[in-house]
TrEMBL record, chain A:
Chief location bin: membrane
Membrane topology listed for this record: Multi-pass membrane protein
Name of protein: ABC transporter permease
High-level lineage: Bacteria, Pseudomonadati, Pseudomonadota, Gammaproteobacteria, Orbales
Span of domain ABC transmembrane type-1: 23-217
Species of origin: Frischella japonica
Compartmental location: Cell membrane
From TrEMBL, chain B:
Phylogenetic lineage: Bacteria, Pseudomonadati, Pseudomonadota, Gammaproteobacteria, Orbales
Organism, as annotated: Frischella japonica
Main location: membrane
Name of the molecule in the record: Methionine ABC transporter ATP-binding protein
Boundaries of every ABC transporter domain copy: 2-242
Database matches in InterPro entries: AAA+_ATPase (IPR003593), ABC_transporter-like_ATP-bd (IPR003439), ABC_transporter-like_CS (IPR017871), ACT-like_dom_sf (IPR045865), MetN_ABC (IPR041701), MetN_ABC_transporter-like (IPR050086), NIL_domain (IPR018449), P-loop_NTPase (IPR027417)
SMART domains in alphabetical order: AAA (SM00382), NIL (SM00930)
Membrane topology: Peripheral membrane protein
């Protein structure tokens, strides 16, 4: 066993601490940008659903502006967004390189994508239930909380799983601004340093993270659907 | 209780044309009444019922509920008013993520009751609709009829004075339809709740409504007490609806399909007789023979009790050799029986003979 490991993965053991740190960095970036971008995305999605024609707070102009805004940001490739946002990042974080600097473009890249996913999830909620809630004297706020978010919960979790997995993908590109993480490790050390075993291990760890996310979300969906 | 005055609702379709969903409608619904609104789909009845709780805001007109013009209320006042107007829907519209208990609790969310009082209220409501044992089930575990019962309990939670029913039985099978109608009737009688019931089925109207309005293309074309509408419909659409709720159509089919009868029709005249009230029980047929030697052959006859009034329909062959038919018609009119000779063009089957 030991021989096999040393033969095929000669560098993994030596670099174990770096691999561990990169894994933690990836989780850190995913978690915090997921949290902040997730919050922003849900707010954007609720605004989109509320302001749509026949929505609870119908506002055609706001709706069309938000819709175009989200489409615009979703269309910019993430690697380019990273460099485009440098001035904004400097303004917010004070520096343009490193883990925290990567969070700004990650959040801005993730939020519109997530908003679109959540919007679709919320549109699955039966309009009849929304109408019934209105007939029972619910305020727009109550309709958001008690109808859209509660009735759409399973669909929201499903959309979140897809989004988090794609967010893990985005974090691997954050190496372009020196953020570290498993993506950077695989490219800089594995690929450019001719250490293929490092690339393979990085891939395996990312796969594990993806499977774990999927598993957690599936269990949650099972719990909330009736 | 409910007064609708000159209500107009317009929609813009995608080409920018204006569609008049509700066209200058005036309705007056009394307290404690079950008021039916019938019409084919697209007649504007669903839009009209939504005007009553302003889920649909009319372009012009007055909506007066309990002496209060709802168009003058602000959002907050309107929401408070809506809590006193229950509504049930064709597709139930229950919240799927809540149990039966949770669904009935939702309208009580900011009622001024203690937790215990709320629980007691929910228990009473579930007993009223016969679902006390399904308290912790989710809507997906219930049948259509049971879901509508939950919806009724939910609609009654805030002790409303009015319940609006939008095609409440249209998604149910005949047995459940009967059971739900019985429950609605019970609710109306026990709690004195005013009900507005939208339907395309005249059977439903006949079963429980006191009054009915017939709608076509956004207009109310006929309104009246249910017995009057059923015995003396003025509009041909109303007539159509009534036929769908009776067996007359089927009776004609049988009469015209029968070879022996079809033969007889060549010599004799076919008449339709309608009568209401207690003269239904007078032996007018033997009287006709005694006075005018007129022979009446009954081909179809039934008496229905609508709102405690007998309403009779009769299809008969009338052979009268010595007396002109006008005289017979006159006599029957005196007895409050309307008689109409069957027009050959009115029934395509007759025409074929």
């Amino acid at each position: 066993m030991g021989d096999f490991f040393y033969h095929y993965f000669p560098n993994v053991f030596d670099m174990r601490e770096e691999i561990l740190k990169s894994t933690i960095d990836t989780i850190y970036m995913t978690f915090f940008s997921g949290l902040a971008g997730g919050f922003l995305g849900i707010v954007l999605a609720l605004l989109l659903v509320a302001t749509k024609p026949d929505g609870v707070l119908e506002q055609a102009k706001v709706h069309s502006f938000l819709d175009k805004f989200i489409n615009l940001f979703r269309s910019i490739p993430f690697v380019i967004l990273l460099s485009l946002l440098t001035p904004v990042t400097r303004l917010i974080v004070g520096k343009t390189i490193g883990l925290d600097a990567a969070l700004v473009p990650l959040i801005i890249g993730f939020a519109p994508f997530f908003a679109r996913q959540i919007q679709n999830a919320l549109l699955e909620v039966d309009e009849g239930i929304v109408e019934a809630a209105k007939a029972m004297g619910s305020s727009p706020y109550e309709i958001f909380v008690h109808v859209y978010l509660k009735e759409g919960l399973a669909a929201i979790i499903r959309a979140s799983a897809v989004s988090i997995i794609s967010l893990i993908g985005l974090t691997t590109m954050a190496g372009a601004v020196g953020a570290g993480g498993l993506g950077t490790l695989a490219v800089k050390k594995g690929h450019e340093g001719f250490k293929d075993d490092i690339s393979i291990v990085c891939t395996l760890i990312i796969l594990l993270l993806v499977f774990f996310t999927q598993w957690v979300c599936n269990s949650l969906i099972k719990k909330v659907s009736h | 209780m409910i007064k609708l005055e000159n209500i107009n609702v317009n929609y813009h379709d995608k080409q920018g044309h204006i569609l008049q969903a509700v066209n200058n409608v005036n309705l007056h619904i009394q307290k404690g009444e079950i008021f039916g609104i019938v019409g084919y789909s697209g007649a504007g009845k669903s839009t009209l019922v939504r005007v009553i709780n302003l889920l649909q805001k009319p372009q012009s007109g007055k909506v007066i509920v309990n002496h209060q013009d709802l168009m003058n209320l602000n959002e907050k006042q309107l929401r408070a008013t809506r809590k006193k107007i229950g509504m049930i829907f064709q597709h139930f519209n229950l919240m799927n993520s809540r149990t039966v208990h949770g669904n009935v609790l939702y309208p009580l969310r900011d009622a001024k009751l203690t937790k215990q009082e709320k629980e007691q209220k929910i228990q009473q409501l579930l007993e009223l609709v016969g679902l006390a044992d399904k308290r912790d089930m989710y809507p997906s575990q219930l049948s259509g009829g049971q879901k509508q019962r939950v919806a009724i309990a939910r609609a009654l939670a805030n002790d409303p004075e009015i319940v609006l029913c939008d095609e409440a039985t249209s998604a149910l099978d005949p047995k459940n339809t009967q059971a739900i109608l019985k429950l609605l009737k019970e609710v109306n009688q026990k709690l004195g709740i005013t009900m507005v019931l939208i339907t395309h089925e005249m059977d439903v109207v006949k079963e429980i409504c006191h009054k009915v309005a017939v709608m076509e293309k956004g207009r109310v074309i006929e309104v009246g007490k249910i017995v009057d509408i059923f015995s003396h419909p003025k509009q041909s659409l109303t007539q159509d609806f009534i036929y769908t709720a009776s067996n007359i159509e089927l009776a004609y089919q049988n009469i015209f399909d029968h070879p022996l009868l079809a033969n007889k029709l060549q010599n004799d005249c076919l008449f339709e007789l309608h009568y209401i009230g207690h003269n239904s029980f007078n032996p007018f047929i033997s009287e006709l023979y005694r006075r005018y030697q007129t022979e009446v052959t009954i081909l179809y006859s039934d008496i229905e009790i609508i709102q405690n009034q007998p309403v009779g329909n009769l299809i008969a062959l009338i052979t009268s050799e010595s007396t002109p038919i006008e005289k017979i018609e006159n006599y029957l009119r005196q007895q409050n029986i309307s008689m109409s000779r069957l027009n050959a063009l009115q029934h395509e089957n007759y025409y074929l003979i």
